[in-house]
Structures are given as C-alpha cells and as structure tokens.
Amino acid sequence: RIGGVDIRSMTAEQLASTIAFVTQNNTVFEQSVIDNIRLGKPDATFEEVSEAAKAARCHDFIMALPQGYETMLGRGCTLSGGEQQMLAIGRALMADPKILLLDEPSLGLAPILVKSIFNTVREINRSGVTVILVEQNAKAALKLADRGYVMEVGNMVLSGRADSLLRNEQVRRAYL
To answer: What is the pLDDT of residue 133?
Structure first.
C-alpha cells in the first residue's frame, strides 16, 4: 500500500509515476542532458521539461553543471560520474514520485561527490519524497536515514532507528 492505495490495483503507468528507481550503474544515455531528463517525462517539450525540472528539484543540479542550462544541450554521457548520477536522480524525479528507490548512488564516486549525492538525497527526502536507499557506505547511509536495515547474504539481521544502529557495537564492528 502506498498512500492508502493497494499497488496491486495500480496500472503500470500509475505505479511508474508513484515509484521511481535509479540503478547503481549510471543509466545516462548518449543523448543530450535535456533528452535524458525528458525520459522522466517523455511527452514534455523542452520548455515544459525545463519548468518541470525546476519543480522536480532538478534546477539546483542543472545550475551546478558546467555552464548550467547550456549543458542541457550537451551529451549526458560526457558528464562526470557524479554529474551522471545526479542526472539519473533528476530524471527519476521528473515523474514527481512518492517513493524514490536508490541503489548504491555513491558507487565509484570520489568522497566529495558522495557527500554531494547524500546532501541531495537528504533534500529530496525533506521535500516529502520517501527515499529507500540501498548503500554499502553504511555510516553515511545511517547518518542520513530515519530507519536502517542490516542485511547479510540476503537476510535481514538487524533493523531499527538509524541512530541506534550507528551506536550498535555489532554494526560498528562489522560495517563501520
């Protein structure tokens, strides 16, 4: 159930606009940045995508790119790894989802970019989007999360409030 609605009764389109997923390997295409973003809202014009990008919290990301909106015409695959990850997140937000699933958003990124990604995730959550984060960087993830679930070989071994898990000696020894 999401928002009181049984997801089994949702159409594929309804489900896709309710839950957005960003995979662990940047799924940026060899198209322009704007076309990559447009994939999150495929029936939109350039102007509508630009406006929707602002409304979908993509504006700060776009303005942080080299040359801001001018970069939107460049190819997404020429961006750095961190910028590509931000682009993939921005594209997912175009559907204005209630839930954002992120799989290893920090994978392969420099520490300074990891901090930027996690700050973005924090802001997305504060805007009202539920974020479900799968992340091997346990310390960063637990600092960001309200709740945490610790898995070993596909089995959940611990769960609870994130701040409690950060102080848990078993978690500290094994993951932190």
So the answer is: 94
